[in-house]
Amino acid sequence: MQRSTKPPPASARRTPPIRRAAGWLGPVVVIAIVAVLAIIARPADKPAEPVTGAATGGSTGGGQAENPFAGLARRAPDDPLALGEPDAPVVILEYADFQCPFCGRHARETGPKLIKDYVDKGLVRIEWRDLPYLGAESDDAAAAGRAAAAQGKFWEFHDAVYARDRRVNSGSLNEDALRDIARSIGLDLARFDTDRASAATHTAVRRDQQEATSMGITGTPAFIVGDTPIVGAQPYEAFKQAIDRQVGAR
C-alpha cells in the first residue's frame, strides 16, 4: 500500500527488558525518573498510565505537566521514516525491530487503526526508531529499511517485512530475502545495496539505538505516545486513551 507522509490521507506505524535509565533528557527530577520507569516496566497486557502531575514535576491541580519526552520528537518535515504532519499535536515514537513478532502484530493490527483515526486527521505523527537487538538479521533489516527510506519507500518496506510472522534469525531476512523485498516494492537495487552498506546508514541506526538505551529501553516494541510510555503490543485502546487525553488537553 502506498504511504504518504502528509495527511490526509497518510499511511504507518515485545515486551522489552528494561534497564535502569542511563541518561534522561536534561535535569528531570528524580521522582520523574522513578515514575516513568515504573510505567515502562508495566506488563505488556496492561495499558500504561499517563505521566502526569508530580511524576513530571507538574501540577496535579489543573496545570499542564511538563512532558519529559518532548525533546525526542524530531518533527523533520522531510523525514521518510515518519507519517503525519510535523506539527501534529501528538507524536508517537516507535522503537522497533523488524524481526520482532510483537512489532509485526502491532504493524498489522493496531498501526492501521491509529493511522486511520489519528494520523490521517492530522492529530498524530508517527516517527520510527530502529532498535535492532535480536541478531544479525535485525541489523541487516534496519539498514535495508534506511536504504528503502532513501528512495522514499520506507513504509512500503515496513509493510512488506511485517506482512507475515518471521522466525528470528531463520534466514527470512537474509541477503536474498531483503533484496527480494526491495525488488517487490520497486527499489533501484544497485542504490539499495550501496545505501544499506554506507557508514551514514549505520550511524543513523546506532543513533536510534543509543536514544532508546539512554532511557533504559532494550527491547521492542516500545512507544512514547506524547508524554506516555507504552510497552509491548498493547491493544488499540491503550493508545487511544493516551492520545485522546493529550489532544483533549490542548
Summarize the SSE layout with pairings:
Elements (H helix, E strand, L loop, with lengths): L29 H11 L41 E2 L6 E7 L4 H19 L4 E7 L5 H15 L3 H8 L13 H10 L4 H8 L2 H16 L7 E4 L2 E4 L4 H13 L2
Parallel strand pairs: 2-3
Antiparallel strand pairs: 1-3, 2-4, 4-5
Helix pairs in contact: 3-4, 3-6, 3-7
Q: Could you walk me through the main structural features you see in this protein, from its secondary elements to its overall organization?
A:
The protein has 250 residues and is an alpha+beta fold. It has a domain at 86-248: 3-Layer(aba) Sandwich (Glutaredoxin). The chain is built from 8 helices and 5 strands; from the N terminus they run αββαβαααααββα. It has helices at residues 30-40, 101-119, 136-150, 154-161, 175-184, 189-196, 199-214, 236-248; strands at 82-83, 90-96, 124-130, 222-225, 228-231. Strands 1-3-2-4-5 form a 5-stranded mixed β-sheet. Helix 2 (101-119) links the parallel strand 2 (90-96) and strand 3 (124-130). Helix 3 (136-150) packs antiparallel against helix 4, helix 3 packs across helix 6 (189-196) and helix 3 (136-150) crosses helix 7. The longest helix is centred in the middle third of the chain and has 19 residues, at 101-119.
Considering the chains and any ligands shown, give keywords for the structure.
signal, 5-stranded mixed sheet, Glutaredoxin, 250 residues, 5 strands, single chain, 40% helix, alpha+beta, 10% strand
